From TrEMBL:
Molecular functions (GO terms): flavin adenine dinucleotide binding; oxidoreductase activity, acting on the CH-CH group of donors
Identification of the protein by name: Acyl-CoA dehydrogenase/oxidase N-terminal domain-containing protein
Residues spanning the membrane: none
Lineage of origin: unclassified sequences, metagenomes, ecological metagenomes
């Protein structure tokens, strides 16, 4: 269980696999978002929930 998310910690490969899917979704909406100059909170939430943001954080600071 990860102390910051309250859910089981996925392995890095699983997280990266999920992020590939998320990245494809982001890419399909990129031109419209660039045109509007938008950053979507839900996109950041989705990355956080996937565990991706923890990959770059050292384990001693709560990363994986």
């Amino acid at each position: 269980m990860h102390k910051m998310t309250g859910r089981p910690v996925d392995d890095t490969q699983s997280i990266l696999s999920n992020v590939r899917e998320i990245a494809c979704d982001f890419a399909s909406q990129r031109s419209e978002r660039q045109r509007r100059r938008e950053l979507i909170k839900e996109d950041f939430d989705r990355l956080r929930e996937s565990g991706y943001l923890l990959v770059a954080v050292p384990t001693e600071f709560g990363g994986i």
